Every structure is written in structure tokens, then in C-alpha cells.
Amino acid sequence: MPSDLNPPLNTASNPAPRRASQARHGVVGAYLQPLLQYAAQCGISASQLAQAAQLGCVLDPVPQWLPATDYLRLLDAGAQLSQDPFFGLHVGQQVKLGAYNVYGLILLSCQNFGQVLQQTLRYEGLAHDLGKSELMPLQAGEALAEYRWHSHFPHASRHLVESVFAGIAVFGSWMAGGALPIAAVGLQHDAPADVSEYEKILGARPQFSAPVNYGRFDARLLAMPVPNADVSMYPVLQQHAEQLLQEKLRSQQDGGIIALVRNAIMQNLAQDQVRLAGIAAELQLSPRTLQRKLSEAHASFQQVLDETRHQLACQYLRQAELNLADIAFMLGFQEQSSFNHAFKEWQGMNPGAWREQFLRNQ
Questions:
Q1: Which of 46, 101, 232, 336 could disulfide-link to 59, CB 3.0 to 4.6 Å?
Q2: Tell me, what DSSP letter sits at residue 153?
Q3: Can you tell me the distance from the alpha carbon of 327 to that of 286, in angstroms, rounded to the nearest whole number?
Q4: Are the beta carbons of 53 and 76 closer than 8 angstroms?
Q5: What is d(CA 232, CA 73) in angstroms, rounded to the nearest whole number?
Q6: Residues 107-140 pLDDT 10s
Q7: What rounded mean pLDDT belongs to the chain?
Q8: Per-residue pLDDT reduced to its tens digit, 150-182
């Protein structure tokens, strides 16, 4: 029989060691915030939540990155502590722009909702590795489009997929400036005993035990403009997101400490939060251990930071639509003059002259 609260994920009561390749999959701290905010509304502190989820880390301050399995344990722990059968849906209701990180800013620079979905397919991994989005190809004459979400954790409790779909519904309606009409929703899990909240939050009563997790909507919505979109920022944000994505993919492939540090640096450059202690904490290492590991790889933190900035600077300067102030910001320099000085040390000329030379040779 279905129950109001799905059983907790197996890893919550019996945490198992993760393979190194799995350990780098997770959620960024911003994506964790809606869960913590709703738990706080239920009177559950971050420390209580971490203890109930049997985490080996603290949540105050919020970590910049959290393993996916830890996030799933937090969802289940929150549902059990709050005794809220709709915990996942209510977590999704807390989603705001910041939860999606850089990828969320890209969505606000898209011309229409078709482009929003295309950017979601490409960049949602910058916010979390919990699953993968898919937009089914439209056939000639079809009136409905179908969005699907494939969970990477099919045995997780229903709170995961419900939080994802509620977040999409809430954020999408916020972007549109009003409720987006949904024709149908399908969820793979069985129906719980109480289904009263679904239509209110998702916009439609779901088909439970569906073959896939899906949402169907009028295909004309794909051409609907995003109100107040700042399309001029799209090239800047898309270029930044692409660099973050490529570096993340490289770090997951080789797992080397230099690649992991470089990826963490890139994630935090624009926020000017690139410090040895902060990057070490994100990688769940002490600063001394991180320094030792880098030394064993014949590198230093400052060297990796400089090389990362240098590599990104050259890539950004090849994009004529990016101005120097934008590039300095994306590289974490507080002033453009500091960027100019650093680049001259790297290349022997200022960035403007380097760009002119590059463009002349094209």
C-alpha cells in the first residue's frame, strides 16, 4: 500500500562508501538552500537535519558542494522530521533564481521558453547531478510538447522527483510572470495516500506509476517570449557556463587533484571566493592536505589559480562580444586594472592589444 512518507533511501540508514567516480556527483550549495529553508520553516535546524541524515559534515555555513547521496538523505530526513507527506513538493516551492546558479542566470537571458528548455538540457548539471532533462522532438502537427526528467537515482524516495518538478513549475511561472498552463504531468512512483497538493503546486493532477516522469504543455509555449529577458547578457553568461561545464566534465573524467581544484576555482571565480581554505573545504579536504596533494602533483594552489585565469582569459578574449570589464568580472578580478596587470605578466601585453592581434590574424 502507498504511504504518506516513502521509506528513506538505503544509504541513509546504511551509508556505503562511494566510488571515486561517483563522489564528484552532487549539488551546489545554492541548490541545497530551498531544502534548508523549508526545513527551517518546519522548525528543523540545519544541525538537526544533518544529524538525522547521518551526514559527516555540517550545513552551517552551507557547503559550496554536497554529494548527491547526502542530498537525498537530507530530503528523506526532512520528510521524516517534519512529518510532511508533501516535503519534496514544498521544497520545490522554495526554489528561486539563485538555486540554479549560473545556469539560472542564463535562463533569464533567453529570448523564449524554447531556448530556456534547450539551455536546461545543456547546463542543468551546473546546479546538480540528480538527473537529466529531455525535450521530446515535436512531430508535424502535434499540439503538445513533452518534457521528461530522468532521475539518476531511480530508487530514491518520491521526494526527489517531486521537488524537481515543483521547482520547475514554480520557477517557470515566476519567469513567465504568471502560472504556466500544464496539460498533463506523469510521475513514475506510485500514488501516495493523499494527493491533494499536487494539482495546486504542479498545475495538474499527475498520472502516477507513469512509464517516465513527464510534463506536457501547449507546444506554442516554446515560442513564448521570456518577459524582461536581458538577451544582451546571453553571450557572456553562455560562454561562462560553457567553460564551467567543460571543466566539470574534464574533472569527472580524470579525477586528478589539479583538475578538481581547477573546476572548483572556475565555479567560484565570479563570486571572488577563490581562497585556498574555501576550495579545500569544497573538496572536503583540510588546507594542509590540499597543499600536500597539489605538491605531490608538482603544482601549487597559486599556480593552478593563475593558469586557470590565464587559460580562461585567452578563451574569453577570442569572443569579440565580451568586453574587458565582463571578462575581468568573470575571472574574479575586482578591478579591470588588476586584470590588465595580470594579463600583461602572462602574455607580455595588455588584453586589449592581445585581442586586436588575435582578431587581425583570423
A1: 46
A2: -
A3: 31
A4: yes
A5: 40
A6: 999 999 999 999 999 999 999 999 999 999 888 7
A7: 86
A8: 999 999 999 999 999 999 999 999 999 998 889
Residue type, 30: A
* C-alpha to C-alpha distances, 70 to 76, 219, 241, nearest whole angstrom: 10, 37, 25
Residue located via cell numbers 582578431: 359
**Strand positions, DSSP E, the chain:** 26-28, 65-67, 131-135, 144-151, 184-186, 214-218
CA–CA distance, 305 with 308 (Å, rounded to integer): 5
Task: Identify the pLDDT of residue 94.
Answer: 96
Going by C-alpha positions, the residue among 316, 338, 335 that lies closest to residue 327 is: 316
- How is residue 179 written as a grid cell? 502560472
What is d(CA 121, CA 205) in angstroms, rounded to the nearest whole number? 25
* Angle subtended at Cα 230 by Cα 228 and Cα 236, rounded to the nearest 5 degrees: 160
Question: Worst-scoring range by mean pLDDT, 215-219, 246-250, 320-324?
Answer: 246-250
* Euclidean distance between CA atoms 122 and 133, whole angstroms: 9
State how far the Cα of 76 lies from the Cα of 87, in Å rounded to an integer.
Answer: 9
